[in-house]
Amino acid sequence: MRLELGKFVIKDIQFAEESHIENQVLYVNKAEVEAMVLEDDKLKECHLDIARPGEATRITPVKDVIEPRVKVSGGEIFPGVIGKVSPQVGSGRTHALDGCCVVTVGRIVGFQEGVIDMSGPAADYCPFSKTVNLCVVIEPQEGLETHVYERAGRLAGLKTAAYLGELARKLEPDTLEVFETKSVFEQAAQYPDLPKVGYIHMLQSQGLLHDTYYYGVDAKQIVPTFMYPTEIMDGAIVSGNCVAPCDKVTSYHHLHNPVIEDCYRHHGKDINFMGVILTNENVFLADKERHSDMVAKFCQWLELDGVLITEEGYGNPDTDLMMNCRKVERAGTKVCLITDEFPGKDGKSASLADTCEEATALASCGQGNATLKFPAMDKVIGMMDYIESQIGGWAGCVNEDGSFEAELQIIIASTIANGFNKLAARGY
Amino acid sequence: MVKGIEKYGIPVVHICTVVPISRTIGANRIVPAVGIPYPLGDPTQGEDESRKIREKLVTRALKALETPVDEQTVFEKDEW
Fold first, then answer.
1. Considering its fold, how many domains does chain B have in total?
2. Crossing angle of helices A285-301/A317-330, nearest 10°?
3. Is the ipTM of this complex over 0.90?
4. Per the domain annotation, does B79 fall within a domain?
5. Which residue in B21, B34, B53 has the most chain A C-beta atoms within 10 A of its own C-beta, making it the best mutation to test that interface?
6. What is the pTM of this model?
């Protein structure tokens, strides 16, 4: 599969009579987008707001973050969710608005929705403090069940991102990159002297609002499969979960998976990037056993020399991570794990819930239990009502002036376990 | 908690879904449970079936508690 990815630099978002892109500014017809979101009868209110880097603005509770993209050719964006499921995506041409995001905000669904500060100390930990954000603030109908509200919020964000992406369909991008992965035999033959490297991508699939969707299929219902890396860049995977904010893989992070981007950067130089093995993190032991066996079988079948493995969330997914590691190593493929750590506030607890002897190489994305003081902000998009019960907060952590103290895990993507952040650990 | 209680000489059976974690933390007697969201029942099978599952697992756990072990042991069956 060969994908052309055209990027448009977006430096600002402004509300205007007509939605369009001009001189690197995204103009948005506010009423039109709000009306589109409210076509969903599960939502009773929607209003848009803009948050820019450097402003004294806090966004919370954040559900998802999405980069606007459009498929110019080769299928439709977010297939199986809001786009047609066929043809499959990953080839043809895609346009992306680089530097701006859609952020869905609103009354809490679960308790694991996070904070984005556009300035101050917490901004250093969050990639979305550096993007211009169109916030879609939603209010659900009374009495809506949480999973119905989650779905309404998810679709509101994706529809808005697709609407904005559509504005770039016929324009000429600022940059154009090409990504290509060939069929397995051709790919292996292209760089016969380089090590064959794969990526084992573990999707959050614990259920109870911890879900991810692959071409619209709930990831807890999949068995491991192969996919071309470029499919992910076209929204084949979207987030639908309320996992801890710090290592939540937002839909933005799926589009911008840093492991895939880096593997392509090294492709043909020091590795031969063979593709992605997709698996999940289910809550039954038999699923964990069966799927880690299958992942190891694929590695052996593809004769991979090495793999990188990422997980989403922490706790019992650490077992999936370790099972994959042990079985893949035993099948003859070298493994490097990428994850974050939770050693407790005092740093004295085991930082992963599980481990294995074969886990000899691990890149840490930092730890989520360290605490930070969040200053009061001039403006809050959304509401501060839930900070104490959002994960990372605690009873009494909020002060009267709106400042609060919380663990880093309350910040969206602060320790994201695929490396799209700046925290790390070093061994001595 | 399992290790903390056993340190005082009181045997413990750990009923849990993710057996590998139980092994990692060092539990000596492990009874595999149904699933993380419902360890001792199964709402997909209704309340009556859930009660039967619960009774079976708890009975197995009590029997495991009386069984001497000299290494980490997973009790997957009712007879041993």
1. 1
2. 30
3. no
4. no
5. B21
6. 0.94
